[in-house]
Amino acid sequence: MERGMPAGGPGGPVTSQAPPFTVPMRYMLLGMAGFVLFAFDLVAQSIHLSGGGAFLPQVVALTHLLTLGSLLSFIMGAVYQLVTVAFLVPIASERCARWNFWLYAASAFGLIGSMAIWSLTGLLVFGSLATVSLYVYAILIIVSVSRSRIRGPMLWFVISAHVYLMAAVAAAWLMIASISGLRLGGVFPQLLATHILLALGGFFTFLVMGFSFKLLPMFTLSHGFATWRQKWTWVLAHAAVCLALIGIWAQRPALEWAGGVAGWMAFASLLFDIREIFRKRLRKKTEPPTRMVVVAAVAGMAGVLWMLVQLGSGREQDGWQGVVTFYLLGWVVLTLMGYAYKIVPFLIWTQRYSAKAGRNAGAGDRPGPGMRAHTAGSAPDAVTASPPVKPQKVPVIADLIQLGRSRPVLQSFAIGVMVLSFSGVARFTAGAVAGSIMIALSVLGFIWQLQRVVDPKQVAKELRGHD
Amino acid sequence: MIDLCEVREALRQNVYDPEIGINVVDLGLIYDLQEPEEGTLYVKMTMTTPGCPAHDSIAEAVEWAAAQVFGVAEVKVDVVWDPPWSPERMSEEARQQLYG
Q1: Enclosing domain of residue A135
Q2: d(CA A450, CA B5)
Q3: Is the dihedral of CA A311, A312, A314, A318 positive or negative?
Q4: DSSP letters spanning chain B
């Protein structure tokens, strides 16, 4: 009997590396809750978002409610799930991932609260705890994927992202320490720029780019596309971060500008790859969330271009606030929203329906896995003697969510981002408020659609008593 | 004696790729069905991509659905990557569904 390369070892198809449902789901639910809080807080703070309110405590707290309270939390859950399927390795320590959730939730929200009331003690205590928690997460992921036999650009992107995360967190902790009295010789502006660069251009960008090389072909069923450009995207993205970093610390605007050019080229390379993936796709009808990921990549490229203009124009805080808002919401958040429309239903389907897949029969009419009458050497008479049954359809993932309805949500979010970003630069308060309301309504619509898939009552039962 | 056509039909009727919504037979994921010894069914299959998140559920669904066919006493599912899946393996119906 001719056999190919077995995937699951001899004797069966089992290759399961995925963590228990409760591990990624808790993080994702926290991220979704954080996103709802962000929507309300965004409207509440919208009046401060035009005209340089970026350093107000409540705006700093709002920014971190999005990045720490929502994005990072959701990403941690998604990454715990994705690394197991993309790299075919288990999480290095499931127990650690599970318990780290509570440390992360307490420290992140404690830190955000401390920012809102500007409590230096709170910033130091919760900031230190959040640093520990994020280091635990980053090390877990780096150790896990390093054990994988799958090599290539996706692995480089994921490892780089988590190294940048640790560096960004270190910069943040140093900022807190300097505010609390640690003498750092007046480098606070450089630390702030480093923190933003490493978090946005480093962690979020590398992670989204890396996983896009896996997720987009999967969602479009693309085959036979060229992958040679991926390594150059990785090199260019690193060049962008490193050049900009040197420019910030050496105070050489030319290097910052060179970093921006490299970043723009990294996005151009990514977009060529995405175009190639779409050209070779078998699913000709692309779903709205997947299309929006492409729009988000274009927004990322536009954000870098805006940064280059900003570097040349010499505009100060307002301009930078606009760039960061546009890049964060238009590239990072929009991409994650697009992927969340696919990842969350998959996770729910796996938990609730995968065990029923292939069993399109009424319960009790045919034997379940534990009741099989057909062992070696005996014909399964008991099975075939069952009366005919009316088949019950096991849903596929598309049955769990109507992805067509994501279109207005994602489109209004994208428009809101543009209105908010440009109004901030133009010091147009009414525009900033209108943009914030559009974004908030889109976020609430997005969460409403996801919670219908998740079903809070059922997920509460599934999570209860598992830690 | 296992009726391999009946097994194929059972898989066509019951086992779907949950993401694409097309059954595994029309997708061309089933490479080979054999009965190496009386009552034992050997299924050689693949996934559309290595690291497919639905890997386990599809493979287990194939095992379960095949086990329901008359004469099948034991099922052995082997998921292989060589040869890799390619779009040419899909049936005309599957292509129409995807391209539509």
Answers
A1: 18-150
A2: 41
A3: negative
A4: ---HHHHHHHHHHH-B-TTT--BTTTTT-EEEEEEEETTEEEEEE--SSTT-TTHHHHHHHHHHHHHTSTT--EEEEEEB-SSPP-GGGS-HHHHHHHH-
Within 13 Å, how many C-alpha atoms sit on residue A312's CB side? 10
- Domain region containing B50: 4-99
**CATH number reported for the structural domain that contains residue B49 in this entry:** 3.30.300.130
Tens digit of pLDDT for each residue in B6-25?
Answer: 999 999 988 988 888 899 99
- Sequence-ordered list of residues with C-beta below 8 angstroms from that of A228, at least 6 positions apart, any chain: none
- Asked whether residue A106 is domain-assigned, the answer is yes
Q: Do B60 and A13 touch (CB under 8 A)?
A: yes
ipTM: 0.84
Tokens 């034992």 locate to: B40
Question: Judged by CB atoms within 8 Å, which residues 25-64 of B form the interface with A?
Answer: 31, 34, 36, 39-40, 42, 44, 46, 48-64
Q: B93: distance to nearest CA of chain A, Å?
A: 13
Residue A450: count other Cβ atoms within 10 Å of its Cβ: 22
Confidence of residue A356 (pLDDT cuts 50, 70, 90): confident
Please report which helix (H) or strand (E) contains residue A220, including its range. Answer: helix A205-220
Final residue before a domain boundary, out of A91, A122, A150: A150
pLDDT tens-digit readout, A13-62: 344 677 888 899 999 999 999 999 999 999 999 998 877 778 899 999 99
Residues forming a β-bridge with A222: A281
> What is the count of structural domains for chain B?
1
